[in-house]
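quick one, 265 residues, struct below
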Amino acid sequence: MGEVVFVGVGLHDEGGISLKGLEEVKSADSVFIELYTSLLPGFSVKRFESVAGKDLRVVSRKELEEGNGEVVLRAAEKGKVVLLVPGDPFIATTHIALRIAAEKRGIKTRVVHGASIISAAVGLSGLHNYKFGKSVTIPFPENFSETPYMVVAQNKGLGLHTLCLLDINVEEGRYLSIKEALEILLKIEVQRKMGVVNFGTLAVGVARAGSPNPTVKAGFVEELLNYDFGGPPYSLIFLGKLHFMEAEALMVLAGAPSSVVELVE
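---
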C-alpha cells in the first residue's frame, strides 16, 4: 500500500511551494492538483511541470468530493501520490474527508504545509494574530446567510478582530468582491440594527495576499465600498479593540485614517 502526501502550494503561483513540498512531488509516482478551493492568480501547470519534472493531473471538485477522491485513493494503493492544494492543505478546505478515507484503507498520509490566507492576511495588515476571534466565509448572495454578520458581532463583543474570507467559484470564474461583501453585510444591518457594520465602521480590505503586489487598505466602510482593490482573491478584516502598535501598523501599512486610534484600549 502506498501513501498520499498533501502538499500546500501557497497563495499565488508555483513559486509558493516549499522545497520540502517540491521534493515530495519529484519522488511521487502520481501527482494530482486541485485548483477549485482557492484562486492561485499566477499559477501555471506547464511551468510547474517543467520545474518538478512531473505531469500534473488536475482533479475537479466532483472527483474529490462527490467521487470521494477515488481517483486519488486508487493511485495511492499502487504507490506514492502527492495531492497539491492551494494554501495550506487543511486550513480552509474540505480535504480532511479524503485523508480519513485513506487512513481507513490503510493508506499512509502525510502533510507538507504551505502559506495560508489566514496567516498572510493577518500579517499584511499588521494586526496581532492572538487578537483574532472566529473566522468566517461570506457567501455569494444566492447562498445568503446572516452567519457572517453574527460572527463579526460576536467577535466585536469580545473585543476581537474578524477575518472574513470571501466566496469564490474558480470553475465559473466568480469571486465575491469586497464591495459586494460589504453590501451584503450592510443589508443585514438594516434588518438587524445591531450597529455591527455601517458606513462609519473601520475595516481592512486585502486583495491577492501572497502575491508580489497585494493590496491592503484600511478605512471606513463608506470608503472601502468604492476603493479599487484590483483583481481577486479578496478578504476582509473587521476590527475589535486595538493595541497601540496595531493602530500604528494600520496607519503606516494600510493607509488607515488617524481616527483608528479611537479603537485602542
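The chain has a mean pLDDT of 96.
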